[in-house]
TrEMBL record:
Name assigned to this protein: GTP-binding protein ypt5
Cellular component GO terms held in the UniProt record: endosome; plasma membrane
Keyword Protein transport annotated: yes
Subcellular location: Cell membrane
Membrane topology per record: Lipid-anchor
Keywords assigned by UniProt, alphabetized: Cell membrane, GTP-binding, Lipoprotein, Membrane, Nucleotide-binding, Prenylation, Protein transport, Transport
Record PANTHER family: PTHR47978
Source organism: Absidia glauca
Stretch list, region Disordered: 174-205
Source organism superkingdom: Eukaryota
Length: 205
């Protein structure tokens, strides 16, 4: 007798300062592709990807990749509202990006769903020689976050990051809650898949 597998669908939002590599991370995860130079996201872009946890369990992430520029910060609550999980990205070569990441953690813990699963990603490990930030595993542990250091360029820990999030989701509980599937409606979608000028450092890794 064949057992029918289940697919669980969750809304995931990416947050972080501009040019830390959010779009590159999600593009690597969804398309297994990397562009050395990417243009900055305007508003937000939407992508989707599935992960098979076992023969009977599949998690589908509906992913909102948000713009990191300060002028778009006021739009962020529209995208993290109703999110089941979030990836907050910083650049290991830029100390200011970690400060921004911590402010996003604080905001989500105050204003997002109290059960949201948050992962902190220190991106651009391929630039180890330029590292300015030591590993923040202790901070992540104290804040109750998943933590990975990643490289969108080399694909280091990218799949592992999203798989860990999928495994952390309380699948049955959220799947039986209609609110767990709530996302943006068409009226909320702002400038999807559009781009602006190049990111400040020109590197998306």
């Amino acid at each position: 007798m064949t057992t029918q597998g289940k697919t669980y669908q969750f809304k995931l939002v990416l947050l972080g300062e501009s040019a830390v590599g959010k779009s590159s991370l999600v593009t690597r995860f969804v398309k297994d592709h990397f562009d050395e130079y990417r243009e900055s996201t305007i508003g937000a872009a939407f992508l989707a990807q599935t992960i098979s946890l076992d023969d009977n369990t599949t998690v589908k992430f509906e992913i909102w990749d948000t713009a990191g520029q300060e002028r778009y910060k006021s739009l962020a609550p529209m995208y993290y509202r109703g999110a089941n999980c979030a990836v907050i990205v910083y650049d290991i070569t830029q100390t200011s990006s970690l400060d921004k990441a911590k402010s996003w953690v604080d905001e989500l813990q105050r204003q997002a769903d109290p059960d949201i699963v948050i992962a902190l990603a220190g991106n651009k490990t391929d630039l180890e020689a330029r590292r300015a930030i030591d590993t923040k595993a202790k901070y992540a542990d104290e804040a109750g976050l998943l933590f990975f250091e990643t490289s969108a360029k080399t694909a280091h820990n990218v799949t592992e990051l999203f798989t860990a999030i999928a495994k952390r989701m309380p699948l049955e509980q959220l799947a039986n809650n209609p609110r767990s599937r709530r996302g943006l409606n068409t009226r909320d979608q702002v400038d999807l898949d559009r781009t602006n000028g190049p990111a400040s450092d020109g590197c998306a890794c």
